[in-house]
Give the backbone structure.
Amino acid sequence: MAADLSQIVKAYDVRGVVPDQWDESLAEQFGAAFVEVTDAEAIVIGHDMRPSSPGLSAAFARGAAARGADVTLIGLCSTDQLYFASGSLGLPGAMFTASHNPAQYNGIKMCRAGAAPVGQDTGLSEIRALLEKWAEQGVPQSVATPGTVTERDTLTDYAAHLRSLVDLTAIRPLKVVVDAGNGMGGHTVPTVLEGLPLDVVPMYFELDGTFPNHEANPLDPKNLVDLQARVLAEGADLGLAFDGDADRCFVVDERGAGVSPSAITALVAARELVRNGGKGTVIHNLITSWSVPEVVREHGGTPVRTRVGHSFIKAEMAAHGAIFGGEHSAHYYFRDFWNADTGMLAALHVLAALGGQPGTLSELVAQYDRYSGSGEINSTVDDQPGRTAAVRAAFETRDHITLDELDGLTVTAPDWWFNLRASNTEPLLRLNVEARDEETMTAVRDEVLTLVRGQAASNDPDV
């Protein structure tokens, strides 16, 4: 097919509608190009439950083998299970998933050996350039000795590795509702949690890439409604929600209230610092709560602030030898998981923390959730730079204000801060506000939204 690669090769992965934007013939070329660019002698491939995933991953394997690479197929898996395979086997990898996107989408997340990410600056642009060259000149003939294709099950080993990193042997019995959203959590959760003192109430564990119950995107509050109701109905201790490829995990407390990913970041950071003798660096992006660096310092660690996005987090993890990293989007990164993100390991930390003391989850996380936050509010604007400049002009002359542009515009005052970032893919400005109290947060939020949207901001902004 004559694909427009500029539409499907994103900053961190490949993603588009199947078969309109890409198909198995192009997937085969991606496999060949991946081997050429990484110079891999062997690779590992996994896929999610989307209807198009088996065919696309098999085509990628054909392309890779045709260029001489031996291919290990691990079949159905979560994205972090693919990272485990890449790390434990020491092989470059490819995961076929479109995460939380609708059913007609699919994509490829690629990594080098040890789960090191392949993004625009680390190989993805070269893969795209090679495919564009082949579109004009034709795909090279297969090598004289093609690679082999074998199958391997890594689920049990993946679960054992996660369980080796968190001690759950002495936790009290807990009742936990898990919403897999018909995604890969339904495949991984039963094996990872097997044998623990947990009464697991499963929701939507059936693998179904058409997502018949709700989008597998827990970042959108409407997709947590079923879980919140079930936690209350069951009288459960907590709820867990995974996205489509199960690399992100969201937490609901015993009251049915969502727990801020910043609070989870702080909780896990504290536990990882204790596990490492009160020493270590923790990476956090610039829209996580003030509570994250505070908790890190209180537990003897060194917080490092970075831009939003997994490529930046992983680069900083490697540069600083960090033990842990967290984002407000519920991506959690662990040194002992090859600096890769795994929502499942974060979930085990939450279960261990809750089960290791007698109180409720809301009581436990209160010490990590210290401020009032707006959540991320998106505004559709035609002139992102112009609106951002207007906001900057409104605040830069005020007393006791600091500004930085590490990622978008961050404005900080003694009692509040906000970050305004432009989307890379849509005409959106994303606003996050935090303050020491709800009244101040609301006032700052509404003032910035009025500047961004050019009109009086609603009291109930579209979060």
Summary: The first strand starts at residue 14 and ends at 17. The domain at 155-369 is CATH 3.40.120.10 (Alpha-D-Glucose-1,6-Bisphosphate; Chain A, domain 3).
